[in-house]
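hey can u check if this looks right to u? its 424 residues, i copy pasted from the old doc so theres a chance i mangled smth
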Amino acid sequence: MTAPFLPRLLVRHLPFYYGWIILACASCAGLSRQGGAVATLSVFVAPMTQEFGWSRAAISGAVSLGGVLAAIASPVLGRLLDRDGARRVLCIAVLTTGIANLGLSFTVSLPMFYLLFCIARMNFAGPFDLGIYGAVNNWFIARRSLATSLATLGQMAGLVTLPIVAQLAMTQGGWRGGWIATGLTVLVVGFVPVWLLMVRRPEDLGLSPDGRTPDGPARPGSPAARREPSFTRAEALRTRAFWLLSLFTLLAYPVQAGVSLHQAPFLIERGLEPVAAAGVVSFFSLMSGVASMVFGLIPARVPMRVKLAMIGGLLCVGTLVLLSVQSLPAAFCGGAVFGAGIGGLLTMLPIAWADYFGRTSYGAIRGIALSVQVLAQASGPLLSGVLRDYTGGYETSLLCFAVLSGFGLLAALLARPPTWREAA
């Protein structure tokens, strides 16, 4: 496939590997992705439900429905990613998310809110995830952990930035001004770099993954020196590792989405001021970014299943700390531990799929697994919202999420790398 003109021009003159440009584009797209994040929506929950009288379950349903739509679309998008690369997928995702965020400022009814936020949420859960990590995994093998952690850091920057941008805009223009500021940020940061500079694979520019010369060997003993796995989707589905990673996903992602969406309103109910609650949400996102870097730097000799088990433990402990929050310092402590688990989850799970099954059919394999992920994400906010409306508080849902995280830890410990014998 022919690469865009500007990358072909730049690659002749750049003093460094073009993959770092790809990583920068993926990070910009990652920041824009947060226009559909539950952490961003969480700062709008209180003012929008207060104005329209919607229940928490009703507003959570938009997150869940958007996830269901992403689950339906992801297998098809995965094949598109393998064929055409991340550029087309991410450009469409950024444009439609930004426009949907702007449109949310004109919300006058619950169906209108559902229509617009479901678009943003579908993009968040499907196209953005496939495009960002598909691009990184195509361009990096030996440096995959570092590159993925940096891409996740870009997304965490969005989770830190967009809730603050929205909250500050809301102090001047209400929640409608908050959505306008969010949409403009998404469009300005995300579209242009991806459109101009993203390239499908290093081979399209005459390069090799990690910046090696096309026929040059990798450093002896490095991950690139070993044979990269190359499973087809059919082969991957016959392995035990595929289903155990899917089970871990099914257990971890309701916790990720369910706690994230209702974090701010839960803290407000515990007596925190709205600005303080938004600060905790942003600090949780900051710690997610820090954790993404820390997990990316863990040596490759530490088994992936151990890293995933650590993530399950952090989610469990962080949820239990939040459950006991009575003060601002405790809220920051719970947000820090839970955020560390989220940063590890967002970083290590895409690496696990690429390391276990390779990059040749990454989109097709990840597209199937992503359907499990987004359905799990969809269930978390809905469960939390329904239990909040039924019990009058978030304590029951937080306890459920702590239990799910504990079972996720056990599933992770069983998820060993696949073997060719299983796939045969």
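Residues 215-225 have pLDDT under 50 and may be disordered.
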